[in-house]
Amino acid sequence: MSFRQPATTETSSKKISKETLQNSLKIIHYVKPHKTLFFLGLIFLILSTITALLFPYLFPLLIDLAHQKKVHLIPFNGGHLINIYTRVELIKYITVLLIFQSIVSFGRLYLFAQTNERILANVRHDLYNKIISLPISFYEKNRIGELSSRITTDVIKLQDALSIDLAEFFRQILTLIGGIAILIFISPKMTLFILTIVPIVVILGFIFGKFIRRKSAEAQEAIANSNVVVEETFQNINIVKAYTNEWFESNRYYKKVQKVKAVFLRNAVYRGSFISFIIIIMFGVIALVLYKASGLLEAGVLGDAQLLQFIIFTVFIGGSIAGLGELYGKLMAAFGASDRIMQILNLPSETETKPISIHKLNGNIRFEDVHFNYPTRSDVDVLKGISFTVNKGEKVALVGASGVGKTTILQILMRFYNIQKGSVTIDGTSIYDMNVQQLRANTALVPQEVMLFGGTIKENILYGKLDATDEEIMMAAKKANALDFIQKFPEKFETVVGERGVKLSGGQRQRIAIARAILKDPAILFLDEATSALDAESEKLVQSALETLMEGRTTIVIAHRLSTIRHADKIIVLNQGKIAEEGNHHTLSAQQDGLYNYLLKLQYQLN
Ligand SMILES: Nc1ncnc2c1ncn2[C@@H]1O[C@H](COP(=O)(O)OP(=O)(O)O)[C@@H](O)[C@H]1O
Ligand SMILES: [Mg+2]
After folding, report:
1. Ligand 1 pocket, 577 CB below 6 A?
2. Fewer Cβ close by (within 10 Å): the C or N end of the chain?
3. Which helix (H) or strand (E) holds 370?
4. Is the pLDDT of residue 285 over 60?
5. Beta carbon of 382 within 6 Å of any ligand 1 atom
6. Do 256 and 219 form a contact (C-beta atoms < 8 A)?
7. Of the bound ligands, which one is closest to the alpha carbon of residue 406?
């Protein structure tokens, strides 16, 4: 599952590749079901742009009418279709247009919102479904923060592109074409003059403006840098004070603040030059156009109203050229965002986001010469030929030094990773030939550190079986030795846990996890040092809850304290990626120079 180098977020300054463009355009697939609405919106957009262009054409005609000149609109058959004689008449036309314009503008906005929000809801949901369907290894290769930003920032970029930028792009293009057409209609000669000079000035201004924006981004970065010092020291204020390093931090901050000052002063020079540029070039051009045009006015080529029309449309054209430049950057960024979204959507899913009906396994596990290394560290062989069997209902313990690969064996059994060599079967079927969700539905893991979801206790237990009844939940909590402490909370099962709720102790969280596993009722159970982080008191409660949970299930237990696995049916001692010893407590402890015996003595000494 390879992941192309994502297109940069700041694509505005760089070109995007053909591959990025092609991939990003696959998003059109989401537009298709709503194409009728979309095209309707587009028609409304065209209508509202045309009417918007009519106003600056009509307003100056009031001047002609004030001078008692007749106004002729829409030439037809040698005459005119519309002849206007008074200002009142013209205002009536303008009023009708205004009403029309307001209706189509509303329609345009609403229709685009309808299509876009539908598209975005689908994209968001598909993206989320895809990401949670990807294998664990994907999460190890990509930072969680970046993944969630796909669903937030990238989708928002897409949203902006679809709801604002795309419409704006069409509008500016139409304005540009329409504006030029009207200018040519008024005075072809002046149009030629303007079209040679205005684009150059606007583009120069745009490039300068972009430079200024980049510089101000640098300034923001300098500020952010200085804030890092502030946050660090405030967060660790007790360390700062304990080491009497106030002067050191003060100096550190002083340097950052000086840097901010320097950056801002340099930017002031750029911004000052930008203003001078605007004054000299932009207003210079306007003065030049006005000078030329007034010459035509003097010569009687242009009328008062035409002059005004001319100026307004020149400003319009300048505005739309500048607007298009800015939109180009935004649309490129949207292509980049869409590409990143599509890259994820194109990855093969490991699981499906559909409810499944569970087929119960018996729980006969067999490892046969299993070799394994983690995909992120392919040079380190963690397992180098492991073979063992666990029969239905047996309790087998994995023992060995930290980092030897005990947890890895459980993760392989839950198919979080693929093995490189050998076979892993359950009830005689390779786990890689099973439906992965069927496999996982038949297993439960109680880890050392239980993380709960930030909901109620009830919701956390229900996670084991979403359709469990209140009675079942109660029974599970009871069997998990959790009922007592839950009922001591005023809100009982509705007590909110996690960040915004009650903080539960390690032993309490463990027992909620056990209740969850009891509800799930799996054929196969994994206990990964489930009691090793607990104090003696809660260890006793958790251990007895675990005994209940283990009854009648195939269990693989990883124990920190060897005393808890004395009665295991089988103990497997791992060393350097291989099985060093195998037997029960009785046979293994009899081997005087065995590894198990050595570990036993070590723990005995510690106690
Ligand atoms: N997700 C992972 N990616 C890469 N290496 C890992 C990963 N998880 C564990 N390892 C490495 O694999 C080896 C076995 O780890 P583990 O099975 O967790 O040991 P333990 O026997 O303590 O449970 C260790 O060297 C560990 O650093
Ligand atoms: Mg472990």
Report:
1. no
2. C
3. strand 365-372
4. yes
5. yes
6. no
7. 1
Half-sphere exposure of 57 (CA within 13 A, CB side): 21
Q: How far is the CA of 573 from the centre of ligand 1 (A)?
A: 16
Is pLDDT at 96 greater than 90 in this prediction?
yes
Residue type, 467: D
**Is there a contact between 599 and 607 (Cβ–Cβ < 8 Å)?**
no
Q: How far apart are CA 443 and CA 549, in angstroms?
A: 12
Ligand 1 mutation pick, 138, 371, 381, 408, max ligand atoms within 8 A of CB: 408
In terms of phi and psi (left: phi > 0; alpha: psi -120 to 50; beta: otherwise), the region of 398 is beta
Mutate to test the pocket of ligand 1, among 404, 557, 575 (most ligand atoms within 8 A of CB): 404
Q: pLDDT grade, residue 607 (50/70/90)?
A: low
pLDDT tens digits along 476-518: 999 888 899 999 999 999 999 876 667 888 888 989 999 999 9
Are 458 and 422 in contact by the 8 Å Cβ rule? The answer is no
Q: 427 — alpha (psi -120 to 50), left (phi > 0) or beta?
A: left
Look at residue 5 in the predicted model and tell me its pLDDT.
46
- Coil, helix or strand for 135? coil
Q: Strand, helix or coil at 574? A: strand
What's the number of CA atoms in the CB half-sphere (13 Å) around residue 157? 24
CA of 401 to the centre of ligand 2 (A): 9
* CA distance to 205, 212, 213, 268, 331, per residue, from 216 (Å): 16, 6, 5, 10, 22
How many angstroms separate the Cα of 290 from the Cα of each of 12, 31, 33, 239, 297? Answer: 35, 46, 51, 68, 10
d(CA 431, CA 434): 5
Collect residues with CB below 5 Å from ion ligand 2: 407
